[in-house]
Design a protein that fits this description.
The complex is a heterotrimer of chains A (about 100), B (about 220) and C (about 100). With about 100 residues, chain A is mainly alpha-helical. Chain A has 5 helices and no strands. Chain A has one domain: Nitrile hydratase, beta subunit (Cyclin A, domain 1, Orthogonal Bundle), CATH 1.10.472. In chain A, helix 1 packs parallel to helix 4 and helix 2 packs across helix 4. The radius of gyration of chain A is 16 Å and the shape is globular. Chain C has about 100 residues and is mostly beta strands. Chain C has a 5-stranded antiparallel beta sheet with strand order 4-3-2-1-5. Chain C is globular. Chain C starts with 12 loop residues before the first strand and ends with a strand. The interface between A and B is large, with 57 and 58 residues.
Amino acid sequence: MPRGHHDLGGTPAGPIDRTEHQLDDWEILADAVNQALGAKGIRRTDELRRAREQMDSDLYRRLSYYERWIASLETILIEKKLLTKEEVDRKVAELAAKWGEP
Amino acid sequence: MADHVAAQAGESEHGHPRHELSAYARRVYAIRDILLEKGILTGEEIQAQIEYIEARTPANGARLVARAWVDPEFKKRLLADPKAACSEMGIDATSLNEFVVLENTEKVRHLVVCTLCSCYPRPILGRPPDWYKSFNYRARAVNDPRGVMREFGNDVPDAVEIRVHDSTADMRYLVLPVRPKGTESLSEEELQKLVVRDSLIGVVDPLPAVPEQGV
Amino acid sequence: MSGAAGKFRPGDRVRVRTDDRPGHVRTPSYVRGKIGWVERAYGDFLNPESLGHGGDGLPKKTLYLVGFHQGEVWGEYKPWGRDRLFVDIYEHWLDPA
């Protein structure tokens, strides 16, 4: 049976990178929005895990930790009809205009 | 730190990220703003989560361990009912599902991993280190624990048994390391400084006692 | 972590099921089909396989700490000695062995 891309125990892997990075504001925000939604019972941790398990495997491997959180959060919020992908796209463009894009 | 990230973008200067963001990073600002506009979350709720997690640090784990080293009765309580022992120490463990403390001995070392995601006792220790979340740690901790520990400078003798815990469910694990030799004269506060974060995950032992240096 | 009402007791030998079920599961593939023992019964918990898909997690499932000899899980190609591996596994993933 196919092993999920998240199911990593015992798979071939190299040395462990022990470099640590100071979290960026967007990572802190991703963490906090996620926890706040959990605290209000709007999403369950297992739903987010499931969304990360179901995402495209190349994407799962390519994204950073909090990028995966954001992707799975959007999936679950769309699934729960709390927002739509189009709304997020529109808001991204709005913020880009406000922040001054190149 | 980061008290501005909860604020609604555009509400003030503070909503503006400092530098170039990836496409996904941009989306979290958009998602945040939509959730605020729809009244699903408030800025205060987001801010409260930032403050909550930043108040959690490995120092909590170090306090538990140092107390267990100096007080055998506390150690018994910590192993039997870790959440009650936390509350005794003024450490808020209420939001932890379940909490298990694994006692290292001269003969046994424990190592904690989450191979499926990156479960970690966040309400006690805060956010996990990057290496703990890395694919390579998640892959190797279960089938190469000795190699992993060696990479961290911890060469565990063959005679010592290694017990790896893969936290796949609601239990959150904290390692109670062995008190280093030669620390009999140290105070509880001095002992806390030896209990480095990675020793609470089990990948290393606590720091050794530092002999007094003549100045 | 109260009353352990499940069907297994500490010391019972168990084999992890090899089910190929779709959806969100918390039983790592490396341990499926392997034989170990119940180290501890943790009590009853909401079922993540239901929670992961928007369900209420009911009925609850008994969760066990299951121990394995490293050699059983990965084969004897390494000098594992007494090293062991412990995994938290829900009752419906375990058969008596």
